[in-house]
């Protein structure tokens, strides 16, 4: 009896393993929903649509981008963590709901390490200080001088409270020892509309959010939030050339619900690596100021832990209390 039970268990386990392998080989057999933690027009939205099209070509099924804005990305993230772990609902997100909200909310409807399965990063870019052309600011030093002359008068916009653009502004205030007014919006897209209309004076925006407007002359790109100039924007000065200690980057990740078969994750990971190496994808990303960047699932998990620790320090220094 014991021998028959062991054989039965082994047969069942082998069957499940073969089924998982087969699922990985045939995936995807129907359209895949790519849930984007962003309003239309933001950096995450722009990059998500680029990747949805690229993955559709790589895997021969439609990857359908779906915007789920709200609560700084929590709505999108929570919806994915509650989805079946079969690879047909994926999360496309930047850092806000993943590495900042654990410090700014007393409780979240998910635990990133427990409820999500990391797949890969697909790209990253330095945040950029951009100003309305009417503002007499052409360098970080100009902004510091103006902010000190008019304490609390300059308004910088963000995609929401405790978002990375918000904390980039708070970091600038800490390092430069200036006072500026933070104005939160419901996403990066609305924040850009506000600066284009002159409602706010400046923004710390991701490449996909501000680069195209800098190219057209509707915004002035003052400096990247980095120590050295980026090869994607060689003509834009780095903040570190005049003001050290302000390094902020945007990055875009693909993740699945925890429990998604490893074979499916491996297939998506391989397709994403091929997608961001395609010359036409590289070109489109470069136009948005984004450099292709991939990681293994294990590397992404470690990266998320490091980013969580990093932003925890900024949140505490800014005096932001959990909501």
Question: Can you give me a brief rundown of this structure?
Answer:
The chain is of the alpha/beta class and 323 residues long. The chain has helices spanning 2-26, 43-59, 74-81, 96-104, 112-115, 140-149, 164-176, 188-196, 207-216, 262-277, 279-287, 297-318, and strands at residues 32-36, 63-67, 89-93, 116-126, 128-131, 155-158, 181-184, 202-205, 220-224, 249-257, 291-292. β6, α7 (164-176) and β7 (181-184) form a beta-alpha-beta unit.
Keywords:
D-Maltodextrin-Binding Protein, domain 2, alpha/beta, 323 residues, 2 domains, 12 helices, 47% helix, 5-stranded mixed sheet
Overall domain count = 2
Q: For the record, give the distance between the C-alpha atoms at the N and C termini, rounded to a whole number.
A: 58 Å
Residues in helices, as a percent range: 40-55%
The oligomeric status of these chains comes to single chain
What is the residue-mean pLDDT, rounded to a whole number?
90
Provide the spatial order of strands within the biggest beta sheet: 2-1-3-10-4-11
Shape: globular
Number-wise, the strands total 11
Named CATH topology of the largest domain: D-Maltodextrin-Binding Protein, domain 2
List the total number of helices.
12
Largest sheet: 6 strands, mixed
- For this structure, what is the CATH homologous superfamily of the largest domain? Bordetella uptake gene, domain 1
Structural class: alpha/beta
Q: What is the top-level CATH class of the largest domain?
A: Alpha Beta
